[in-house]
Amino acid sequence: MKIFSGNKFIILSLLMVFLFTGCAVRPVLYPNAHYKEVGKTQAEKDVDQAIKEADNADLNSGEFAKSATRTAGATALGAGVGAATGAISGGVGVGSIAGAIAGFTSSIFWSIFSSGDPSPIYKNYVDIKLQEEGYQVVGWK
Known about the structure:
5 helices; two-stranded antiparallel sheet; mainly alpha
């Protein structure tokens, strides 16, 4: 039984990543005197610069390893559950493959949706950079 061919699965996975990675979390600025003086366009440029500096400081470096570990664990768990289900229904190989794909896919979705939330250290770094510029950060969304 062929669920997805290799190329179609890769293309579908990449498409999902591109669709969902645009939902990144950003700081929300309070419209204080400095914000009003520089305007929204410049404020957004300053936020982008602070985010770029935080990215260059590699403050989320441990997040990829955590995500990879969760993905591997979910894939193994899915394969195990699929194999058990397949043993009951008589199709162990198909069940374990389907379970592994389900576990992997659910883990990827979880990683995509949770990856938009940077670490507290990353947020603090950006907040401090923006405060030094004269902005007030009220939160992230």
